[in-house]
Amino acid sequence: MRVLSVQFAPGTTTADHPVLALVSALLAASVAWFWLMLRLRGAALVRVALIGLLVFGAVLRVLFAGSTPVYEDDYRRYLWDGAVVAHGLDPYSYSPAQVSAAAKPGTASVPELAELALLSREAPALVRGINNPTLTTIYPPVAQAAFAAAHHLAPFERDGLRLVFAVVELAGLALMLAALSAWGKPQALALLYWLNPVVIVTTYSGLHMDVLLVPGLVGCVLWLKTRPFLAGAMLALAAGVKLWPLLLAPVAFRMLWRRPVRMALLALWVASLSAVLLAPMILQAGQGSGLAAYSNGWVNSSFLFRVIRWALSFADDPGQLARMLTAAVLIALSLWWGLRKTREEPTIPLHMLGLTTALILLSPTGYPWYLVWIAALLPFAPKLWIGALFIGACAYYGRFWLGENGEYIWYTAGLVPLWYGAPIVLGLIGWARQTRD
Predict the structure, then answer these.
(1) Are 370 and 393 in contact (CB under 8 A)?
(2) Which of 70, 87, 285, 425 is the most buried (most CB within 10 A)?
(3) Rounded distance, CA 98 to CA 117, Å?
(4) Per residue in 141-167, is it b (16+ CB within 10 Å) or e — as a string?
(5) What does the alpha-carbon distance between residue 229 and residue 435 come to, in Å, rounded to a whole number?
(6) Contacts (Cβ under 8 Å, ≥6 apart) of 309
(7) Is 289 helix (H, G, I), strand (E, B) or coil?
(8) 357-413: per-residue pLDDT in tens?
(9) Shortest CA distance to 75 belongs to which of 216, 210, 169, 214?
(10) Closest Cα partner for 382 from 52, 34, 46, 28?
(11) Quick one: the chain helix, strand, coil %, rounded to 5?
């Protein structure tokens, strides 16, 4: 895949791209990873083998240094946001389109906008290439701190992001190894994350920032039994990267329901810390913000959400009603697992994984890099049907060729249902057998 990425350089078209070879390569890697999952479940490795495979995973990441992102451009927003924050400016105030307009002579009248316009002249092609340029950034403040660190390391350079992602991943890996030991599971299960081809490709080729969630999610699992307030801080840290981890709070801390005062203090702690971390974005999340646009309108590569929206087509606004319904289902599931399973401590990571998987299956948007959220929790509860979701992720890269040739319907009506539907069927079969037994 690293070799193939060269053929996706700027100036090329979909007709020039080896899409079939790319999809086949990721499919082969994902099948090999799934075989590894079959072998590792409940198994242990000698230390030298584990260390060797961890080093191998690091090498796979280094391979993508200097590579061209394949069909992805979100990194342009990361680089721009990082530059804005590194210069002490607010990334939530003005959209790239406003900055580009202000960069024209005699148009910038607001001091901060004038500074941004001046900054944009350092990388004009980058700013012009940002997608959804009329929207302000969607990325929360903790993610912005990572982008700013990348700018300090290598201004406007993709490898600066790769380096920051690698440091964050190494921290997450260290926490994962400790957490697996704390929960009495083989450390070799960390390879399900570290050698996951979807994680590696979407992070180091596609340059998506979802690995920034890993330390927060894994740190929460590590400390939730022994240091719940530290675990709460880690969960709030993850929410500072993307908001959804707050959904896990009722499940993660359900053991404390038997101690209501401590539970109330912990809830206040997590809510307060999250509010502080998210305030710069939430306070400016009005019309024209990326957060508002994403919450109200974006639909892409979804499966169950499209089914629900179709079932609600009788409504005046079926899309909005479907969003409200899926949100209600996810909140209800979080509360049900959080309130009714208080005595089953070993199942907490399983239910955190199950809730995260439900979020992805019900989401209006279903991108391969969202599977990183699952990958961070999968080592603690390696369910095969959830692992099967990674095999179908290669379908996403076929959408570009299908769209170019006017056959996008084969992606939405064929590949996406297969990607998500086959694992769901596998999970239902396993649940039926378990129930029968």
Answers:
(1) no
(2) 70
(3) 9
(4) bbbbbbbbbbbebbebebbbbbbbbbe
(5) 36
(6) 299, 318, 319, 322
(7) strand
(8) 999 999 999 999 999 999 999 999 999 999 999 999 999 999 888 888 888 899 999
(9) 210
(10) 34
(11) 75, 0, 25
Looking up tokens 């959904």, which residue turns up?
247
Quick check: 161 and 207 in contact, CB under 8 A? yes
Q: Decide: residue 297, CB within 10 A, 0-12 exposed, 13-18 middle, 19+ buried.
A: exposed
Report domain extents, the chain: 2-93+136-436
Whole-Å CA distances, 168 to 130, 155, 214: 25, 19, 8
Q: Are 402 and 408 in contact (CB under 8 A)?
A: yes
Tell whether the model's pLDDT for residue 436 goes beyond 80: no
Token pair of 210 as six digits:
């979802």
| Contact predicate 359/247, CB 8 Å | yes
The token pair at 374 is: 């699952």
C-alpha–C-alpha distance, residues 401 and 183, integer Å: 44
pTM of the model: 0.94
pLDDT digits (tens, 9 = 90+) for 124-178: 999 999 999 999 999 999 999 999 999 999 999 999 999 999 999 999 999 999 9
